[in-house]
């Protein structure tokens, strides 16, 4: 039985190197969403790309369609084992973990929530979000916000930028040093502030847009100034420590640039990378990337274990609420069908009754209203108990009752496939990969998940 399902795929720091993440990532997030939507059978799509993850999710009308669309994530990778695939429930739970910071290289980091929200806006603008992903992503953002306001998960080192500076402090004396930050985005801003807090005397901020670099320079408590991105090679020789964090598609620093820089410590946080890996072969220059932050982030992870357990419990509760919301929605769809059918029958019978009464003389408007009100009252009273029973049936996963109701009130429903205890289309059965389904392409009713299972 094919159902409209959520599927996800990701390449992240959990099992992939920076280079592999770079290969898996698309040119831009919107382009990835649009490419996913272009595949047959894909109704919704979402993508998240950061310095340490490339993730994609789709709502598909079958497991096969979902996998086919997501195959583009690992298309350029020699090692397919670095791609993690998830079914609908695991995908939804993972998205909550990402937004709350539990899946970050720096546990509890704040930056990921902002990146997550921007990715949601991009997917929405590209037409990628429908009722399924919209509901799940909204819940994930809610969990991320709760995690940061109700626990101490983000105390201490709260960003990859600050973790990079912590690493630099272990390798170099930063007090009185000169630093260069390449990139004036959120990560560059956090790195610049952390460098100033670590005691560097001067900070140069390079960016393609000078006003943005000036804004970051004014944000740090040090002697800071802005430079153009094209001038990086000129200011590099003066820097003792360099942190790069741009979204540039090409290398900004090559071996020739660092060859004249003298003794320099470089941390490349960009995705794709800003520094040509070949530059690591230059004497007197040490280059680190996100993979090298593990020792710093391990400390943070240990210090936040108690808070992480709180967030895990929060995710469990919110995940259950999400499933209940999908269940209520499925019941509401069935109830809506029931009322639509009853309304059609009521309208027919009212018209028949009015015609028969008018055979003995015209009815007044008030008399017509009495007939229609009586019909409305009968429908309401007759359907009150079935409405309550259907909502209870959805909560209890009693799909035999719901199927029977659909067949009673929607004659065409029973013709769509075999009867029995299977849930309606779009709702998972044992052994299938189900998900809250968007409106079907054939114009049928949407389906929503009731504790479906993943085939992973």
TrEMBL record:
Domain Quinate/shikimate 5-dehydrogenase/glutamyl-tRNA reductase: 168-296
Listed GO biological process terms: protoporphyrinogen IX biosynthetic process from glutamate
Positions contributing to NADP(+) binding: 183-188
Single annotated GO MF: glutamyl-tRNA reductase activity
Positions with a binding annotation for substrate: 50-53, 104, 109-111, 115
EC number: 1.2.1.70
Record region (Disordered): 410-456
CDD domains attached to this UniProt entry: NAD_bind_Glutamyl_tRNA_reduct
Catalytic activity: (S)-4-amino-5-oxopentanoate + tRNA(Glu) + NADP(+) = L-glutamyl-tRNA(Glu) + NADPH + H(+)
Stated family: Belongs to the glutamyl-tRNA reductase family.
NCBIfam families: hemA (TIGR01035)
Role description: Catalyzes the NADPH-dependent reduction of glutamyl-tRNA(Glu) to glutamate 1-semialdehyde (GSA).
Name of this protein: Glutamyl-tRNA reductase
Organism: Halobellus salinus
């Amino acid at each position: 039985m094919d159902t409209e399902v959520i599927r996800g795929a990701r390449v992240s720091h959990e099992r992939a190197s920076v280079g592999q993440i770079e290969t898996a990532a698309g040119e831009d997030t919107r382009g990835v969403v649009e490419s996913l939507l272009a595949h047959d059978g894909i109704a919704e799509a979402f993508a998240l790309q950061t310095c340490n993850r490339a993730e994609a999710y789709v709502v598909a009308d079958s497991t096969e369609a979902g996998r086919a669309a997501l195959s583009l994530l690992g298309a350029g990778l020699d090692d397919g084992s670095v791609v993690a695939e998830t079914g609908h429930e695991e995908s939804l739970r993972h998205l909550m973990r990402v937004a709350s910071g539990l899946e970050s290289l720096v546990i509890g980091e704040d930056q990921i929530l902002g990146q997550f929200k921007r990715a949601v806006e991009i997917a929405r603008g590209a037409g990628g979000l429908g009722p399924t992903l919209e509901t799940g992503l909204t819940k994930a953002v809610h969990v991320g916000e709760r995690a940061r306001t109700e626990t101490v998960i983000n105390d201490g080192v709260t960003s990859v930028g600050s973790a990079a500076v912590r690493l630099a402090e272990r390798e170099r004396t930063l007090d009185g040093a000169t630093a260069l930050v390449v990139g004036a985005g959120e990560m560059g801003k956090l790195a610049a502030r952390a460098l100033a807090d670590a005691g560097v005397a001067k900070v140069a901020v390079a960016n393609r847009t000078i006003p943005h670099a000036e804004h970051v320079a004014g944000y740090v408590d040090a002697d800071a100034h802005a430079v153009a991105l094209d001038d990086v090679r000129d200011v590099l020789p003066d820097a003792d420590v360099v942190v790069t964090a741009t979204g540039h598609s090409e290398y900004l620093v090559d071996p020739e640039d660092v060859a004249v820089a003298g003794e320099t410590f470089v941390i490349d946080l960009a995705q794709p990378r800003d520094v040509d890996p070949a530059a690591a072969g230059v004497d007197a220059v040490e280059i680190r990337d996100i993979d090298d932050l593990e020792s710093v982030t391990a400390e943070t992870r240990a210090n936040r274990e108690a808070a992480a357990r709180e967030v895990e419990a929060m995710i469990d509760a919110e995940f259950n609420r999400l499933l209940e919301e999908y269940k209520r929605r499925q019941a509401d769809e069935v109830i809506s069908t029931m009322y639509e059918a009853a309304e059609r029958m009521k309208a027919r019978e009212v018209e028949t009754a009015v015609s028969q009464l008018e055979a003995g003389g015209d009815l007044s408007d008030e008399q017509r209203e009495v007939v229609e009100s009586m019909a409305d009252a009968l429908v309401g009273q007759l359907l009150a108990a079935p409405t309550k029973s259907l909502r209870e049936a959805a909560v209890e996963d009693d799909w035999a009752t719901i199927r029977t109701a659909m067949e009673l009130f929607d004659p065409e429903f029973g013709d769509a496939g075999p009867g029995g205890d299977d849930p309606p289309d779009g709702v998972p059965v044992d052994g299938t990969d189900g998900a809250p389904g968007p409106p079907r392409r054939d114009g049928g009713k949407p389906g929503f998940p009731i504790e479906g299972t993943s085939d992973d």
